[in-house]
Here is the input.
Amino acid sequence: MTEKEKSRRNEKGDNIIEQDTISAVSTALGQGAVGIVRLSGPQALAVAEKLFRTPGGKTLQNFPPRRLTYGHIEDTDGTAVDEVLAVYMAAPRSYTGEAVVEFQCHGGTEALRKILALTYGAGARPAEPGEFTKRAFLNGRIELTQAEAVLASIAARSEAALKMAARQQKGELAACIRKWRQKLLDLIVHMEACIDYPEDDIEAVTYRQAGRVVAEVKQGLEELLSRARSGRLVQEGLPIAIVGRPNVGKSSLLNALLREERAIVSPIAGTTRDTIREQLLLAGVPLLLADTAGIRTTGDKVEQLGVERSLAALEQAQLVFCVLDIARELSAEDREVLAASAAKDRFIILNKADLPHVLKADEIKARCPAVAVLPFSATTGAGMEALEQALAAYVFGQEGRLSEGVYIQNGRQEALVRRACSSLREAGAAIAASLPYDCIEVDLREAAAALGAVSGQAVQAEVIDEIFARFCVGK
Here is the structure.
């Protein structure tokens, strides 16, 4: 929170935020048909009234909330700046949970800049990145997972990513986490009552009952973790390095995947000297491709730099396309590439499958561990369907598609759920050993705290600031 923000409680006892009024352009920069300037805060309506004029002279306050009103924005000297539609949303029925006013004006850069400057002059201040969504979270209108889903929707690079983010905005993950956390809190409260009031007629928690609760919650969280990789890859993209010896067809594979001549292809070995990076959508998954220079020992100083960059791309990749020539026996350079990629998840692509086969897929798979070994022809496109199916299975599991389950969206959430599972394993061991309740409670509280940090019910202010700093200004 800024220094001007301070917590208080409303009549219902809910935490809300008393703060200044903020303003920002909420549409993309540049020219467009429509641009939106958004105000939020206790003085949003008062600031808007200083700028907005209707033909009949009525103020926004005289019109029903959440209804578009026609008028003009005027400069301080009464000069018309732009023709706009204005809408006022009274708290708490707005995106932020506060009073919000939006001006829908023409989308020219100068009009937006001028209206924004006028809002500052009338008492608003510039909004920080993500501050509108941050206020929605701090005012209790959304949970932290839902706020992260807003960012995921903006950054979505595929239909699957957008669908997943939309479900999280509805609160599916938040509800799931809240349910498991509440079971742990109920168990903790019952145990504490037994410890603190042994003389009262409170039914004791048996170790068997506690074990059942812990096992149930742990199983639910492990199911979430089983889909965590799929969720992250759909949202963030799958980094792939295309590696192989020189002239094996790496650039041809890149061009075939992109369906355009992006990389230079030549029969001369060592054509690619630098790493070429491209993105595409394949099997519903955003792929972050890096076509690399051929890996081999060379005395050429420039080519050596290319090989070093190839090895760096290989190290950074989550999946490797290791390309071999199906029409030739394995060379020493091929074996060097296979050894360099052995520790990675990899697809071995047997390129030039339109030529007579010397390498056999079954033999390669038996000798070289890989997620998949796939014959492929960059010339004819043969094998593309099998490659897409293998990618879908790698990301989504055997179903090969996004299932209807609840998904973890990012590394922060995954790390916290893993921490909760670890604490529950410790609690399960303590229960099995019939340790005292207070020893078991330590692990249960750690698990509950980790789950609370996922949804934002128990999270440090620095973490909140870091999350919302990733947003664009105006959201």
In short: The chain has three domains: 6-143, 151-227+408-456, 234-396. The domain at 234-396 is CATH 3.40.50.300 (Rossmann fold).
